[in-house]
Write a structure and sequence with these properties.
Blueprint: H1 2-16, E1 26-34, H2 35-38, H3 43-47, H4 51-56, E2 62-66, E3 69-73, H5 75-85, E4 93-101, E5 104-112
Parallel strand pairs: 3-5
Antiparallel strand pairs: 1-2, 1-4, 2-3, 4-5
């Protein structure tokens, strides 16, 4: 009797977390820019910045500016950002899919915003 009661409680406990996704990707839309040139800018000002300059200043790292909020990209994500911005005709206004960890964004995909 005790074993089946324990098993039932354990199963009930596990089922509570079945619909919850840990570290699920979210979508973020804003302007992708290097940190040096993006410092102090809001989204509208950052949108006027040339993508070629963001590629040139890549050593400072990358960030996504949404409104007046700046979210830095981790090192692996910065490499993805540089690759994306290096393409001909790449738009700085993007939708990024990834996971936010504090004030850092871990990117899984980058595409031009629609």
């Amino acid at each position: 009797m005790k074993k089946s009661l324990f098993a039932g409680v354990a199963l009930l406990g596990l089922s509570m977390f079945a619909g919850y996704s840990y570290g699920a990707d979210e979508k973020f839309t804003g302007v992708l820019i290097d940190q040096k040139c993006g410092a102090g800018k809001d989204e509208a000002a950052a949108a006027k910045h040339p993508t070629a300059c963001s590629v040139k200043c890549a050593k400072s790292g990358y960030e996504l500016i949404t409104g007046d909020k700046h979210v830095k990209l981790d090192e692996a994500s910065a490499a993805k950002a540089k690759e994306y911005l290096s393409k001909d005709g790449a738009a700085a206004k993007v939708t990024i899919e990834g996971t936010k960890d504090g004030d850092t964004l871990k990117v899984t995909s980058i595409e031009a915003a629609k």
